[in-house]
Each structure stands twice: as structure tokens, then as C-alpha cells.
Amino acid sequence: MKDFFAILRRFVSPYKKYLALNILFNLLTAFLTLFSFALIIPILQMLFKIDTTHYTLMHVGDGSLKEVAFNNFYYYTQELIATYGPIATLGALAAALVVMTGFKTGTAYLSSYFIIPMRSGIVRDIRNYVYDKITALPIGFFTVERKGDVMARMSGDVAEIENSIMASLDMMFKNPVMIIVCLGMMIAISWQLTLFVFILLPLAGIVMGRVGKRLKRQSLEGQNQWGVLMSTIEETLGGLRIIKAFNAEDKMRRRFHDENQVFYRLSNSVARRQQLAHPMSEFLGTTAIAIILWFGGALILSGTSNLNAADFIYYMVIFYSIINPAKDLSKATYSIQKGLASMERVDKILNAVNPIQSPAEPEALPSDGKPVGVEFDGVTFSYDGQVDVLHDVSLRVAPGSTVALVGQSGSGKSTMADLIPRFYDPSAGAVRVGGKDVRSLSVAQLRSLMGNVNQEAILFNDTIFNNIAFGVEGATLEQVRAAARIANADEFIMATEQGYDTPIGDRGCRLSGGQRQRISIARAVLKNPAILILDEATSALDSESETLVQQALDRLMDGRTTIVIAHRLSTIRRADLICVMHEGRIVESGTHDELLAPAAAGYYRRLVEMQSLQSESDNR
After folding, report:
1. Residue 561's closest CA among 375, 383, 389?
2. What is the pLDDT of residues 57-115, one digit of tens each?
3. What φ, ψ does residue 329 adopt, rounded to 5°?
4. pLDDT value, residue 326
5. Residue 376, beta-bridge partner list
6. Pairing relationship of beta strands 402-407 and 577-582 according to DSSP bridges
7. Domain segments of the chain: what residues?
8. What is the DSSP string of 454-517?
């Protein structure tokens, strides 16, 4: 259980007050349980003439505290019988039992009342920690991990932690207190019998522990398979258009059904082993009671103990009151083992190391709003540490200039753009912004200089206003509309039913491709970045939309340092510098006219000729 208490040490600190109150009321519940059971002895002994001893009132100092307490309790019971008769005394003791039980159930409720904020709070905190870590981790983490599996960890695994570990918190703090207090009373009644109990209970615990360890391993396998299922569902929803276009529904169904069958078998195995907890604890508990009945009876019959029949019955009542907490504790242990498997998967995110960190004392960049330059100095980069995507790339982008990166797919263009805002760090060399290595700058300040417009406009299921104002605190409607006008978006926005308050659906599905891209450009305009990165911003658009978007981009690029990645060479003719990339290297650079000069017969010229041929073919 050390893993369970390690989790508590990590997350329980803000809830120490609730934990202390829970333990306090659990102690009160345990003591009230013992005292309510104690009423059984005088009922048995005095009302039914088992004990005919005449008791006199004792004072503190006349004997031990235990002797004084028990003697005086019997004395007052004896006086009640003499004064009001046995039936009235029986009623009074029954009423006292009800009152004691009322107090006991009240304290039991209060113990649960105070554990609930702790239980719910820890689950809330874990969700927050996981989400915060997901947003903080570099993009490279998610190129290795499947998105569906990450979603499964945040939803299914956190829910399992809530249902298994946190739901068992009350039992883990209440039942041990009850067991310890009852064992203390049992020792007071008969230490020989209790010593025998101490031999039996650890044997039962060893049996339960062996089964619980295997449950954790199977639960981990089940949660991993749940992550596979979530990944398949995420891929299906994201690629539904392609699945239908290629008549691949049956293939995806078979794949999902096979994966679901594996999860079914694992779930059955885990559930069966978990259900074993109650029958096993029931059997072991009954076996223990039978053995103690035999051993205790033998002590009384042999006369080797001062234990009498009434004390033995009270002892058995107390011991039986331990059985249910012990069974609940064993079930809680099983649940916790199941939840620990989920915590192990969640910890893979929480303990993931983020290599993209701001330095302790970051250098400062000028905040005057003027364009800043970008420089690649002998940059080499690899995603997996084995195959280099960039090879010793050097490039200088002057402040306020536009540099275009062109080349075949996989040549390293987008990778270069991703190194500027430190989505990744180079394996060798340095990337500089404003003359300073990006690794010496605050990540937040560095990215505040950047504006991105990608091939796929990444929008959120929110209103148009909130999508344009995304990342800009306190933006007004006037500022948002001004940005939208620059992006050629204000006209179509105002034509919608609710204007800027119109919801755009999941990923902007209610808008056309050109409209989504212009919303994305308006968002970049509102941010007013010093460095603009355009990654195939018009390649997925039709001619009319491309014209509108290109006009918006031209206005956006004015006076900014701009990195343009494009396959369509018509979009980069006016760039100050065009760099042609091939297999991770810059193989040519110059202006459009320089690269097409008669003396030039390199990659760029071939790219232009190939696109010209493609355009002629499309026009036929």
C-alpha cells in the first residue's frame, strides 16, 4: 500500500483539515460503537440473573480506572432494577442503546461528510495537473503518444482513480481506526485470545495481498487497451470522410471489434478477480470466527483464563464488529490496486520531462513593436535522435523582410518554422531571434512575438469573436472588427445571423475553407506579431478564396519579419529571399528573378517549370 500513501502525500496537503476532522469523527464512532456494545453485558448478566453480585459505589482511587468504571456501571444498573424493576430497566438500557447508536451514526456521517471535499478535491486537482501538463508539454511529446490514448488517460484513467482510489478513502481511514480501537478493547478483555487473533489476521492478509497484486497488473493491461480503443475512436471520427470514400467501414469495424474483444476479455478477468474480494473475505472471516469460538470456549471450559461467558460474548460481538470493516478494507484494497494501475498511466504524463524550459534568468528582447530578425546558425535537427531532418542549415532573415522556403515535401521547411517558436530545440547549432539564442529567452515572451497562419486553420468550437480574440486579453469588438477588415472577413461575418457572436462549430465546420483561413488571419492580425510564420496558408483554397486570403496576407505581412512556406510559387514571387530546400539543406537561395535567370538551372527553375506544366494541364 505504499503506492497509495505516496499518492496521498502528493495530493492531500491542501486538505489536511478535512483529513484531521475525518479521523477525529472516526475515532468517536469507534468508541461509541464499543460503549453501545458494552450495554449488552449488564442486560445479559443482571436482568437474567446470571450475575447476582451486590455492587457498592466505588470512588476514583479505590481501584484501577477500568475496575471503577465497570463496577459503577453495574452498580447504577443494579439500583435501576431495584427501584423501577427489570422491565423498566430493560427499556432504559434499550433507550440508551438507541441514543448511543444515534450519536454513533451521527459521527459516522460527519466522518464521511468531511472526507468528501478531500476525495473530490484530489480528483479535481489531478485533472487540473494533467491538463496543465498537457498544455505545457512540447509538441514532440504528442508525436510519440497517440492522441486518443492521452484522452483516455485524462478521462477514463482519472475516472478510475476517482471510482477506485478516492471512493476507498473513507474506508481506508475509517476501518483501520475501528479495527485498532476494537483490538484495543479485545486486548483489555483477554490478551491470550487477542494474541491468537493477531496470528490469524496476518495470514488472511497475506492471502488477500497475493490476489491484489495480480489485479493491479491486469488493470494496467485493461487501461492500456482502453487507450487503444479511444485512439481508434478518435481516428475514426477524424477520418470518417476518408473511411466512407474508400468503402473502409468494414475494415474499421473489424479493427474496432477485435480491439474491443481484447478489452472485453481483460475487463472480465479484472472484474472476476475484484469480485473475489467479498467471498474470500467472507470465508476467511467465518473461518477466523469459528477458530476463535473454539479457542475461547476452550479457555473458559479449561479454567485457564479469567474470561467468563458474558465477557466472551462481548468479546465475540466486538470481534464480529471487526469483520465487516476488515471485509470492506479488503474490497478497498482491491479497488485501490485497480486504481493504482490507472495512476501509473496518468503519471506517465505528469512525470514526463519537458525539455522546452525558460532559463532561470532569461534575456530580454526589445518590446518596442519593431520587427526583429531571425537567424539559423549551423542548425541540425532530428525528431528521433537518429535520422537528421535538417543538416547544418544557416540562414539570416533581416528584420522586416520576407523569406520564402520552398521545396519538396519532407525537405524540412515546416521543421525550420517550428524551431523559431521553440516547439522543438535543435540537435546542434542555434536559432536566434533579435540576435539572441531562443534558448536564452523566456518561452512565453518568445512566442508572444510570433503569429502563425497554417494550411489547416485551427479554430475552436466557440464564437467568431472569441476565435479572433483568442490569446489576446481584453480585446474589444472594435479591435476585433478592425482585424477582421484587414483579413477580408468582416463582410461575411456580419452576414451571419449573430455576427461576431455566431458559433462556428467543431473546428469551424460551419464555415468554408476560405472563411476559416480569414478568421485565422484576423486572429494573427489582432495579435500584431513581430514575426509572422505562414505555413502553406493558401494551398488548400480555391482560386477566389485564395485571392481574398492573399490580399489579407499581403496586408498582414507589411512591415513584419515573415517566414513563408509554400508549394504554390505564385504566392512567393515578391519575397525578398527565396530559399530552396532539398533533403534538409538549403541548396539554392536568391530572389525569384535571380533563381530563374538563364544561367540558373537548379531546383527552383525545375519547380517553376513543373508547376507551369501542371497549370497548363489543369487548364485543358
Report:
1. 375
2. 888 777 777 678 777 877 887 788 788 887 787 788 778 888 888 898 899 889 888 98
3. -65, -40
4. 72
5. 395, 431
6. parallel
7. 16-136, 188-350, 372-449+531-620, 457-528
8. ESS----SSBHHHHHTTT-TT--HHHHHHHHHHTT-HHHHHTSTTGGG-B--GGGTTS-HHHHH
Which residue matches cell numbers 523566456? Answer: 442
Backbone phi and psi for residue 390, each to the nearest 5 degrees, phi listed first: -120, 140
Sign of torsion, CA 186 190 195 196?
Answer: negative
Provide CATH code, domain 188-350: 1.20.1560.10
Type of residue at 85: G
Is CATH 3.90.1150.10 what the domain over 457-528 is classified as, yes or no? no
Which CATH architecture group holds 372-449+531-620? 3-Layer(aba) Sandwich (3.40)
- Side by side, which strands form the sheet with 374-382? 388-397, 374-382, 428-433, 436-437
Q: Is 117 exposed, middle or buried (0-12, 13-18, 19+ CB in 10 A)?
A: middle
Coil, helix or strand at residue 429: strand
pLDDT digits (tens, 9 = 90+) for 563-593: 988 766 666 777 889 998 888 999 888 888 8
Cα Rg of the chain, angstroms: 37
Q: Which one, of 496, 513, 503, 499, lies nearest residue 467 by Cα?
A: 503
Residue 286 has pLDDT above 60, yes or no: yes
Phi, psi (deg, nearest 5) at residue 552:
-65, -40
The span from the CA of 210 to the CA of 120, in Å, is 30
Q: What's the CA gap between 548 and 552, in Å, rounded?
A: 6
| Same fold: 372-449+531-620 with 457-528 | yes
Contacts of 499 (CB under 8 A, 6+ apart): 464, 493
> From CA 316, how far away is CA 445, in angstroms rounded?
70
Find out whether 438 and 409 touch, Cβ atoms under 8 Å: no
pTM score of the predicted model: 0.71
> Which parts of 276-308 fold into alpha helices (H)?
277-302
Give strand pairing partners of 430: 377
The gap from C-alpha 487 to its chain's centroid, in whole angstroms, comes to 38
Percent of the residues in the chain that have a pLDDT greater than 90, as a whole number: 8
- Indicate the length of the chain as a whole number: 620
Residue of 421, 435, 413 lying closest to 356 (CA atoms): 421
d(CA 584, CA 394) in angstroms, rounded, equals 11
